[in-house]
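Notebook, p. 212. Picked up where the previous page left off. The plan for this session was modest: take the two constructs that came back from the sequencing core last week, fold each one, and keep the raw output in the notebook itself so nobody has to go hunting through shared drives later. Recording the first one now, exactly as returned: residue sequence, then the structure token string.
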Amino acid sequence: MASKQLFSVPAQTGRSAIVTGVGGLGFETALALARAGAEVTLLGRNPDKGLDAARKIRAASPNAAVKFELVDLASLASIKAVCSKLVAERPSLDLLVNNAGVMAPPKRRLTVDGFELQFGTNYLGHFALTAQLMPLLRKSSRPRVVQVSSIAHLKGAIDFDNLQSERSYKPMVAYNQSKLANLMFALELQRRSDRGGWNIMSNAAHPGVASTDLVSNAFGQSSIQTFIFRLLAPLAFQSAAMGSLPILYAATALQSANSGYYGPDGMMEMKGMPGAGKIAPQAQDPIVAAKLWDTSVRLTGVEFG
């Protein structure tokens, strides 16, 4: 368990990391890893923002080894292309942080492959990314994979009869499902790693309620929910830097564990230092997790192992 003192990332010299998402939590996570000596690759779909994030990290830490690669997690073809490039260029990968996400678009939207946008980006995109980076991860002596979930998973359910919200779409119901799927993926990946001898440490984290573009852009720019979020953000939310600490704890702490789940230790896990997160009972169901895994393999066309 982390102490009440501000968590300090241990030295990462000689380790390589990939972080999805170039703003907010992704930026702060990448910055902290680079400052600790890791070689960091940021993955994102906006080249201007991605290159700017890399420049800002180098400006804040002149010795940082950081670069940007273009990927759209809402496109299986884009994921395959960047993974093929990375596998060809790199000898191994020590850390993968699956952070990027979409939150509560007011109307149902689809990825280019026909998946509901949140489920397709937040979960299936990272599932496909992880599978295709497994050859690099398995060449590391101490590989870790971190899924970024949310306290929203507590209200989530995997609805196999409405997995893509094709029967009905409610923005937060779809978001909750995607974040539950992220956490279930982390736990099932550890089970399969243990059975298959993959040597992966798989765990998860959530940022509490952090003030990021994900939250400020949710629900649509003119919605009442967005107005309330922006009004309350300075008072109720913690910063993206603080929100990144549980992610960094899962990714780097010597005390973090296989199948661990970490979040802020304050009231309702909204703010605070890294601590143990509450895992909903539905996230721990191995039968549903196995069915979700098999469904995800069928939908994405990727294989693990």
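Okay, moving on. Second construct, recorded in the same format:
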Amino acid sequence: MFKATDLAAGRTVAVKIPQSYTAGSQYMREAQIGASLDHPCLLKFIPVPEAAKSRPYHVTEFLDGRSLYDELRARGGTLPVDDALRLAARMCDGLDYLHHHHVVHADLKPANVMLCADGSLRIIDFGIARWAKGRPKSLGGYPQHLGTPEYMAPEIVKGKRGDARTDLYVLGAMLYEMITGRRPYEDQHEDKQLVARLVGDPLPPSHYVPDLPPQVDEIVLHALARKPADRYQSAAEMRADLAAPEKVAVTGRADRLQKPVLAKLWWPVAGLVGGCLAGLVGAFFVLLWLVKK
């Protein structure tokens, strides 16, 4: 990423150049998706004629500020609850626009949210963003990256495509982190965290912040539901709760959580593997019998 000056407009811009020519198609897709968007909470792309490029790159507005990731580190890992809710609501504004334009970000995380010096916010990095299902695939193949493991939704772990609700799951995980200073499932061993989100629920945020209003637990756990159908169905719906948490109905989600039991996933796998091995052994003895005969 380079800081540059747009001589035609007399403004400071950022120029992003791929590290290799093999990433050119991904950059082209990112630039095309970015150019189709125009919202105050999304990074603004500046069109550059392809004929003017000697190699793949794209130009965006230059942002003066720091990422949410750096902001959390500077503040000891957490934000005041009201600040966290406000930031999440503003991210919902950007996601609502994004999803209405049939785009899934697919890699939302604190490092991809910029908090600007003028008080504004931008969701950045559309490197693996893609058109939602049903949109014509006019930009070539999809990237093979699945996102960042710590913020990966259960359906992505399963290898499914995901949709707008996948972004909302990740926003729920980010809100969890802003409030508690921990990521969901961080109580699980590192090599089991991805598996744990398939078979159980994270500890409620109030486990780490005892005086947290139950309405905030409701919002976070609603976004983090394992099944997409059980989550917020739109960014606008989630934003409404974030903007007025005192009006959120407390349904007791925090009391109905299911602790991850990894055996629920591993035993079927072990059974399948054992069955295959038994079949191979059986086939071997049948073949041996036929040879002797």
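Notes on construct two before I forget. The CA atoms of residues 285 and 291 lie 10 Å apart.
Flagging for discussion at group meeting.
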